[in-house]
Amino acid sequence: MNFDKQYYNIGFLDQLSYKDTFVHKLDPRAKIITTSLFFFTVISFSKYEVASLLPFFLYPVLLMTIGEIPFMLIFRKVILVSPFAVFIGIFNPLLDSGQVFIFQGLAISVGWLSFFSILIRFTLTVSTTLLLIATTSFPGVCHGLRQLGLPSLFVSQLSFLYRYIFVLMEETMRIVRARNMRSYGERGKDMRILVRIAGMLFIRTVERAERIYSAMLSRGFQGDMPSLKRYRIKMADVVFTVSILTFLYVFRLYPVTRILGGFIQGVFS
Amino acid sequence: MHMADALLSPAVAAAMWAGSVTAIGYSSKKLKQNVDNKIIPLMGAMGAFIFSAQMINFTIPITGSSGHIGGGMILAITLGPYAAFLTMASILTVQALFFADGGLLALGCNIWNLGIYPCFLVYPLIYKLIAGNDMGTKRISIAAIVSVIVALQLGAFSVVLETLLSGKTELPFGTFALLMQTIHLAIGLVEGIITAGIINYVKKIRPEILDAVSFSKPVEASISIKNVLTAFVIVAVVTGGFLSWFASTHPDGLEWSIEKVTGQVELAEATEGIAPVFRGIQKKTAFLNDYNFKQETGGKLEENEAHAWPGVEAATSVAGVLGGVIVLMFISFIGLGIRFFKKR
Question: In this prediction, does ipTM exceed 0.90?
């Protein structure tokens, strides 16, 4: 994995979250709740379900378009992390070889259905996760989690982690660059060197944490991280949550796709 | 290896989330009681350290492939179990949100697999036992290597169990387990050696840090048999709870109760709890029976012969494909429409 690219990626998602669209302005709690229910709905379908999953693309598409998030960014990330799901799913067509007719005369193995089902679920969940962070910002999510009742110690620690990632990654980037410039080919990339680099980084990290703590103490830190941004549940949040939940409910219980397909078929025959 | 959303069933995801959130709450409470706030920035910085260290790739000997470290054990050894667990949980959260490693629903599983085992089982029961108190280099190395391997084996096995309980893949249990355990044995060995190396390096260069990091020492000291037992009880209750939940309500393929609303009416009668609610809904949705959605019984397939696909009528499938195309076109239309109007 390319180091600079990783770093750039985190930074880019972070930047996107500072936009000022309707989705960005929603309360983090509303987005966290609807997104988790969206996940549960998506994975609650039977493993051979393909058609009924398709309408659910509406949710990420809405987040993406209203939130003005570039499509290619999300698409590339989904492709990047897909190998695991593909690896687990690709055996289904081989192992589950029952036949199912798609059209008259055209039959495929049932396993293909479950394979596509896994891929669709995967795309839905991964893209929505990335969109959640791109439209809410990490501090926003942390704040939402805090208000939803997660322990404050855990949440403030989480926001600390997020801040330091940028600092430490820059430091690591410098070290790795220095190593790469001094090592030709594979020299200097063995485990002994790694252990020394990581050990050094560890020591610097601890020292940094101590400095930060003193600095925080002198600024009146008492164990909690208050946020300046005030969040209140507005009408828009309620409307958003209720309409998404209705959407999930309807499309979970009614196979709208097939009804629609059947209707069109009826019209043309 | 991270668990992924797409492979999970809601029941497994919910059960693992419940277990992990309980552990987060418990650890936060314990930490609040035992240590001062100094631990908070340290935990954050250590989390970022693991994050950065993961990105230094290196060459694995013999194989020549490149790998990176995981880090659960380093945290447990330097921060003590509670702080380490919370740090690991937050690392996994950031990974899930930014890199889509796993995903939000699978996060519960991942925190369990990569956090609970190293911090609450392996650290007190294996690492402390082997490393003892005198902290000799050799003992630390052996303890670290063994602990990392055991922790990864437990984690990998949990991934196998969670995947199979969710019933989304056709991989046979034996093959999948064998594959995962072997891969993770190799990974564990490498990571164990690195973990041991880092701990010993820090001990050699700046020995006082390992003691200084001991603002979590009070916690480590208080890890007694009682705490370990508590952890075990939590594990037992959670696993027992969600296994019995399956046993009573999801005898087939562990599908969600909702499944029975649309398809398997006779099974819905047998279930309790959530089922009666859905039975009411089902009456309202009864007109759907005209469409004959036989696919819903798919969950039962595993037990039957592979070709026992219960007669899917070609007509309904055509309707599915046709409807799917229309729905996708409709959604893209909405998306493009919004983009278009936003640009103006």
Answer: no
